[in-house]
């Protein structure tokens, strides 16, 4: 069959396909090589993960090794440790419910009709309060559970939500100070932001966990968890402040002048005219920053918390499942991936939608 | 109107707001310092930097130059800083090369290659770095015991580490050789970017830079030859001796797990930056080059790549700074980077504040100098007459 | 005149604008050189001059979008000094229309018009919307009230900007090259609105190159160059027998083709 015997559109498409895949010796090589690698990865995953894998809670090291594939039994046996850490076993329904609450909060914040300062603040604060009540207990007949016993997915989500809820107002504050018309305030804030940004997050978390207690009066020291959260939020805020500043820079100077000429005060100009436009411009970068913040929650394992990753480590570090590290990491990776991939796809969708809107103008 | 009018004056507000802001910050710092001093005093800790000259009494598990428990803190800190820089350099280089490959695959026309590039980026970019690090480290530890080492091309790998054929030269010699190479490279960058050479013809400038790099490499070679003991063989191959490996050059699992993690993770980000850079090159430029009859290789090397590189450099600077900071994850697997040395020092000496101060100073220094060098490069290659989009 | 209670203590019998010995520097650049100008209530003044002559800077000093370095500005007897209260007060009474319209892109036309009256004058939403619709009718685009600025043509946007300024019911309107960013076919619709306003007795200071408009409505034309007022005369005299060479040169360039 020759390409010319086909109707025009189809033949052109075929020709293009043939050119892209097999247009030159190099293209042929690339195609074959890439296809081989993809096929190999695909086959390996299928073979290891499904065909030769052992499922079900009754698998042991012997049966798994005999099958030669993945040993999903470790997940079947240990999933509650991975997801909820050392939270009291009978109370783990609370952890699960708390995760659902956070999920709802995040889903709600993705709806454009929720995008006003008031509504977002309401959803996030309300969500955090419900989450905290469920996890901490001590009221409504719930057994109190100390923060040190929190672990697994809820802890990861809690750190994420708290980072956002403390970090975002901080970021707005820093960004406003950074663009202050008073040079001293703007410059000093700039130094603070730059310094925080050039330090590794780990060192900030470490400082908050270990050093901060020395510097605070007794009544302010609080749980280590909250100090570490503050560090994470501060780090998030320093980056987010620069993102918001980028948004400010995208707003024509005339916007603020027009608001001034109408007699609006600083706060009205800021919250009605400047910030809404800055956030719109900075939206893709902001979502990206949230994605990074979510991935960075896993760093608190280093200062001794049992979040998802650390809980996963304990799940296989004990004797009998020691060989099954890959299965546990794949399981955890799947959870992170679902969340991060979903959020970044959503960001890409928003960006595309905004670009379309721009073209209409 | 309410209140005395000077309270509402612009000048008054300017002074009070700025003075208040600075005073507030100073107050915060002062309060923290005073509280810290009281707390330290009650715990019987003294402040000051005398401890830097005391010996540490604990071991460092990886260093480029030899360390012993008798060495003072300052030497440990210096070695830690070198480890961070070494790991950072390896990570940056690896991530850049791999990232360029992935980015090219993603921006090419071949759909199969594009798909492979996309799979790579989506997997490595969407998982936390520390998770990837743990995975590689667990994998390294799950390798067979030394007596069942896997051999390939003269190298051995087992749960204790990766054993490469080693040059028979002392560590001091290696340090001198590396220094020589770095001096050459530094000279080359300086010649290429310094303003005072702007007048020189670009090709001459490039030739001098190449010469500087060559001189550095030759210097490195000379140091190696001089440092080599003629009685020894040039190369040692690792080999199994009883239950352990003799000869060769051992790379610990902590080290290569971290290097792999940073390289593969960084490459995913660099790949996206590379793709963005290529996307930013207008079709018109390429069409113009094609209309002039340039071959596709020349279009790529003379038009597309240089323009794309200019577009990506400012974003790459941020990414590089980020990658250097990521080396601190070494502490999670026990690689003695700067941060881990600091953390262990705090544990052993109790000189918390001094070490945190050193930590901050160290990272500020690393990041600002890296950003300064890269920004300089950015300015040097920026298109004349275009606004440079500087950053970091 | 307006239904809105005035919160200020402005003296409406004093000259609308009184500028004495005004100086302004950008660094070492002397942008305004001892400007003296009085505009009485109801007067229409057109300011023209080559670009960079300081005409925009001068009217932007009147509502303090630019801070002046020395000299005095009085608006209805209230002196603009370093006092933030006086700045707020004067901005309430002085409206401004910009070259680039500067409508708020994230708000509808109606929201653009009601925002400031509600926040600054503290009137109810219903009242603000009624006022807004009245002025949108005056600029002849009431049907666009629910649209966003990005969906309107340049001429329509500038008319909305005029309506937005009018909604604050100002005593004085400043126009900063209101037609310079418009396509030629849209200039007329904006000038028509400005002529109507002039005929209704609004106090106006217009920086513009539209000499036809100046001839038609101006009580006085002012020519500025290099930060100075060079000439100041009623339109017939200004266009008929300009005194200064620089004015003549400028007029020949603007009217020459």
From TrEMBL, chain A:
Q: Where in the cell is it found?
A: Cell inner membrane; Cell membrane
Question: One Pfam family of this protein, by short name?
Answer: BPD_transp_1
Keywords, ordered alphabetically? Cell membrane, Membrane, Transmembrane, Transmembrane helix, Transport
CDD domains the UniProt entry points to: TM_PBP2
Q: Where is the ABC transmembrane type-1 domain?
A: 153-342
Q: Which GO terms describe its cellular component?
A: ATP-binding cassette (ABC) transporter complex
Gene3D superfamilies documented for this protein: MetI-like (1.10.3720.10)
Membrane topology term reads: Multi-pass membrane protein
Task: Locate the coiled-coil region(s) and give their ranges.
Answer: none
BP term (GO), one: amino acid transport
Which residue spans traverse the membrane? Answer: 21-46, 93-111, 123-143, 155-177, 198-219, 225-244, 290-311, 323-344
Q: A single GO molecular function, which one? A: transmembrane transporter activity
In terms of SUPFAM superfamilies, this protein maps to: MetI-like (SSF161098)
Q: Which PANTHER family match?
A: INNER MEMBRANE AMINO-ACID ABC TRANSPORTER PERMEASE PROTEIN YHDY, MEMBRANE COMPONENT OF AMINO ACID ABC TRANSPORTER
The entry assigns this protein to a family as follows: Belongs to the binding-protein-dependent transport system permease family. HisMQ subfamily.
Q: State the protein's name.
A: ABC transporter permease
From TrEMBL, chain B:
Protein localization: Cell inner membrane; Cell membrane
* Gene3D superfamilies the UniProt entry points to: MetI-like
Task: Name its GO BP terms in alphabetical order.
Answer: amino acid transport
Alphabetized Pfam families for the sequence? BPD_transp_1 (PF00528)
Q: What is its main location?
A: membrane
Q: What is the topology of this protein in the membrane according to its UniProt annotation?
A: Multi-pass membrane protein
Q: Which GO terms describe its molecular function?
A: transmembrane transporter activity
Question: What keyword terms does UniProt attach to this protein?
Answer: Amino-acid transport, Cell membrane, Membrane, Transmembrane, Transmembrane helix, Transport
Q: Which GO terms describe its cellular component?
A: ATP-binding cassette (ABC) transporter complex
Q: Give TM regions.
A: 73-102, 123-143, 163-192, 208-228, 255-274, 320-343, 355-374
Keyword Transport attached: yes
Family, per entry: Belongs to the binding-protein-dependent transport system permease family. HisMQ subfamily.
Q: Would you tell me the protein name for this molecule? A: ABC transporter permease
Which species is this record about? Gemmobacter lanyuensis
């Amino acid at each position: 069959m020759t390409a010319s015997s086909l109707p025009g559109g189809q033949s052109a498409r075929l020709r293009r396909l043939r050119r892209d895949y097999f247009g030159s010796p190099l293209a042929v090589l690339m195609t074959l090589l890439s296809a081989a690698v993809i096929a190999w990865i695909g086959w390996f995953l299928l073979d290891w993960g499904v065909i030769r894998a052992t499922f079900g809670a009754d698998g042991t090291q012997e049966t798994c090794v005999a099958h030669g594939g993945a040993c999903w039994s470790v997940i079947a046996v240990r999933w509650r440790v991975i997801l909820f850490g050392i939270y009291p076993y009978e109370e783990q329904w609370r952890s699960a419910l708390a995760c659902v609450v956070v999920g709802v909060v995040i889903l709600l914040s993705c709806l454009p009709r929720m995008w006003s300062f008031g509504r977002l603040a309401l959803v996030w604060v309300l969500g955090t309060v419900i989450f905290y009540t469920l996890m901490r207990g001590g009221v409504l007949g719930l057994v109190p559970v100390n923060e040190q016993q929190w672990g697994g997915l809820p802890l990861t989500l809690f750190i994420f939500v708290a980072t956002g809820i403390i970090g975002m107002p901080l970021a707005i504050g820093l960004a406003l100070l950074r663009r202050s018309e008073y040079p001293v305030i703007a410059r000093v804030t700039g130094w603070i932001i730059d310094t925080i940004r050039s330090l590794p997050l780990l060192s900030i978390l470490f400082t908050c966990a270990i050093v901060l207690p020395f510097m605070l009066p007794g009544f302010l020291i609080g749980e280590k968890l909250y100090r570490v959260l503050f560090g994470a939020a501060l780090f998030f805020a320093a980056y987010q402040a620069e993102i918001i500043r980028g948004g400010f820079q995208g707003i024509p100077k005339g916007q603020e002048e027009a608001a001034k000429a109408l007699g609006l005060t600083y706060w009205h100009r800021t919250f009605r005219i400047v910030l809404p436009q800055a956030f719109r411009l900075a939206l893709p970068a902001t979502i990206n920053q949230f994605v990074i913040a979510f991935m960075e929650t896993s760093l608190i394992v280093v200062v001794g918390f049992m979040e998802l990753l650390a809980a996963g480590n304990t799940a296989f570090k004990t004797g009998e499942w020691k060989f099954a590290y890959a299965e546990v990491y794949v399981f955890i990776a799947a959870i992170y991936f679902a969340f991060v991939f979903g959020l970044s796809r959503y960001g890409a969708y928003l960006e595309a939608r905004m670009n379309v809107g721009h073209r209409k103008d | 109107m309410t209140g005395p009018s000077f309270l509402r004056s612009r000048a008054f507000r300017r002074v009070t707001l700025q003075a208040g802001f600075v005073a507030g910050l100073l107050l915060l710092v002062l309060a923290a310092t005073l509280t810290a001093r009281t707390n330290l005093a009650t715990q019987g800790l003294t402040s000051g930097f005398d401890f830097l000259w005391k010996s540490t009494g604990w071991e460092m598990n990886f260093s480029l130059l030899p360390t012993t428990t008798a060495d003072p803190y300052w030497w440990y800190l210096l070695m830690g800083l070198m480890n961070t820089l070494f790991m950072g350099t390896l990570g940056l280089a690896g991530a850049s090369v791999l990232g360029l490959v992935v980015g090219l695959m993603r921006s090419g026309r071949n759909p199969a290659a594009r798909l492979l590039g996309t799979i790579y980026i989506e997997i490595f970019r969407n998982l936390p770095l520390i998770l990837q690090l743990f995975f590689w480290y667990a994998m390294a530890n799950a390798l067979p015991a030394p007596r069942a080492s896997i051999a390939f091309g003269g190298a051995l790998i087992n749960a204790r580490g990766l054993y490469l054929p080693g040059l028979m030269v002392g560590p001091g010699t290696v340090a001198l050789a590396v220094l020589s190479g770095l001096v050459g490279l530094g000279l080359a960058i300086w010649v290429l970017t310094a303003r005072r050479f702007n007048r020189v013809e670009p090709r001459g400038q490039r030739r001098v830079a190449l010469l500087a790099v060559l001189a550095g490499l030759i210097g490195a070679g000379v140091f190696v030859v001089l440092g080599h003991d003629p009685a020894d063989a040039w190369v040692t191959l690792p080999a199994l001796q009883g239950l352990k490996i003799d000869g060769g050059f051992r790379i610990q699992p902590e080290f290569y797990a971290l290097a792999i993690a940073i390289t593969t993770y960084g490459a995913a980000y660099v790949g996206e930056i590379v793709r963005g850079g290529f996307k930013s090159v207008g079709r018109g430029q390429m069409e113009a080059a094609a209309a002039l009859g340039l071959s596709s290789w020349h279009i790529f090397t003379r038009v597309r790549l240089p323009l794309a590189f200019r577009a990506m450099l400012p974003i790459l600077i941020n990414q590089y700074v980020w990658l250097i900071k990521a080396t601190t994850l070494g502490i999670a697997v026990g690689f003695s980077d700067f941060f881990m040395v600091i953390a262990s020092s705090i544990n052993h000496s109790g000189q918390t504040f001094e070490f945190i101060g050193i930590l901050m100073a160290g990272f500020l220094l690393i990041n600002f100098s890296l950003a300064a060098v890269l920004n300089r490069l950015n300015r040097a290659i920026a298109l004349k007459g275009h606004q440079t989009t500087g950053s970091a | 005149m307006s239904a809105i209670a005035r919160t200020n203590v402005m003296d409406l019998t004093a000259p609308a604008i009184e500028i004495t010995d005004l100086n302004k520097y950008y660094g070492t650049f002397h942008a305004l050189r001892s400007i003296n100008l009085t505009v009485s209530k109801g007067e229409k003044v057109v300011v023209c001059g080559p670009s960079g002559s300081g005409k925009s800077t001068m009217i932007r000093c009147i509502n303090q979008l630019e801070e002046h370095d020395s000299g005095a500005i009085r608006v209805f007897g209230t002196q603009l000094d370093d006092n933030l209260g006086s700045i707020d007060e004067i901005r309430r009474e002085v409206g401004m229309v910009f070259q680039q319209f500067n409508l708020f892109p994230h708000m509808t036309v109606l929201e653009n018009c009601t925002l400031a009256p509600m926040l600054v004058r503290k009137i109810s939403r219903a009242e603000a919307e009624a006022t807004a619709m009245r002025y949108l009718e005056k600029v002849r685009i009431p049907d666009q009230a629910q649209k966003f600025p990005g969906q309107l043509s340049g001429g329509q946007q500038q008319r909305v900007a005029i309506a937005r300024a009018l909604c604050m019911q100002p005593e004085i309107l400043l126009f900063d090259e209101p037609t310079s960013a418009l396509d030629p076919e849209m200039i007329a619709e904006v000038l028509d609105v400005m002529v109507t306003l002039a005929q209704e007795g609004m106090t106006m200071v217009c920086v513009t190159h539209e000499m036809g408009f100046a001839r038609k409505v101006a009580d006085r034309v002012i020519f500025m160059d290099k930060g100075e007022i060079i000439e100041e005369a009623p339109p017939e005299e200004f266009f008929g027998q300009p005194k200064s060479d620089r004015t003549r040169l400028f007029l020949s360039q603007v009217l020459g083709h």
